[in-house]
Amino acid sequence: MKEALYQKIASGLADKIRNGTLKTGDKMPSLRTLHQEFGVSMTTAIQAYLELERNGLIMSRPQSGYYVRYKPVYLTVPSVSKPILGNEPAYVEALITKMYSTLHRKDIRRFSLGVPENELLPIAKLNKELVHALRNLEGSGVGYDVVQGNVKLRNDIARLTYTWNGKLSGEDIVTTAGAMNAISLALMALTKRGDTLAVESPVYFGILQLASNLGLKVMELPTHPVTGIEPDALKKSLPRISVCLLVSNFSNPLGSCMPEAHKREVVRLLADQGIPLIEDDLYGDVFFGNSRPKPCKAFDDEGSVLWLSSVSKTLAPGYRVGWIAPGKFKDKMINLKFSHSLSSPSIT
Predict the structure, then answer these.
(1) Which residues lie below 8 Å from residue 53, measured CB to CB, with a gap of 6+?
(2) First to last CA, the chain
(3) If you compute the radius of gyration of the chain from its CA atoms, what whole number of angstroms results?
(4) Model's pTM, two decimal places?
(5) Where are the domains of the chain?
(6) Which long-range contacts (CB under 8 A, 24 or more apart) does 198-201 make?
(7) What pLDDT, in 10s, does the model give residues 25-61?
(8) The CATH number of 5-68 is which of 2.60.40.10, 3.40.1640.10, 1.10.275.10, 1.10.10.10?
(9) What is the third-level CATH fold of 89-341?
């Protein structure tokens, strides 16, 4: 994607701020100076400063101008994780149950779940869309929808995948009640009790709880906090695993994002052994930068990557709208969805 002129100007100024040429507290050049030095319109100059302000690098002071507010924080990057055997399953289960019991408490700040605050969500617009759905859906949305999921929703999801060159159509998508429902259906479709599931370490606790409930063994893979799982560690583990589950983009809780080369290599390694990959791309759309990171699904030529996501982190957690592109396991997924829930909620 071509970078806009205001973004180029903002990027150059951001580099000067981060490398210390412009220090915290320094006054930024005036908008008129920016307009004259770069030969751009005042509108472009304003957009450049708004971009820097959005990124927390500068701040405006009424009738005074813009000032640098960047305060570099130097934290050491943790080393690659070294998974070890954890506590007793009963203790882990009790800890997770205790966490879930606090979901509606207003007196604590929860770092256990990646959920946006209501103030960040377009609630008024969502309410209007619900009314619109009630008026326009056949039977006002009280009837069952098709098992695979609302056709318009599936087509819209498929169109969104153009941001990472996804070659998906609405027919490739199955809607679910959120991402966890998609993971649950995928694991039921691909595994049996006693099978081994490979995951990152550390991994979202809900995945551990689900694996335990399904009678699966969990193999935690060494994981780098920046680049994700180590492909070499995965390669050594292949003979012992039945399925792999990865949060490839901005994993919870580490926040790691696998480089494209690693994603390509992981897809190849697993495909060569006939091992399916469940890819939870829940955070792929919550990115900073000029382009969305590609998921592993972008490198899947055999339909062995089950790519899933939802709108829980970007639009409406409580609506429980999710989806999965199950590749060659599509028929299994639809049959499981039918037997467990008949269809998705029509209105949302």
Answers:
(1) 59, 60, 66
(2) 32
(3) 23
(4) 0.77
(5) 5-68, 89-341
(6) 198/234, 198/237, 198/241, 198/243, 198/244, 198/245, 199/244, 199/245, 199/246, 200/228, 200/229, 200/246, 200/247, 200/251, 200/254, 200/256, 201/81, 201/83
(7) 999 999 999 999 999 999 999 999 999 998 889 999 9
(8) 1.10.10.10
(9) Aspartate Aminotransferase; domain 2 (3.40.640)
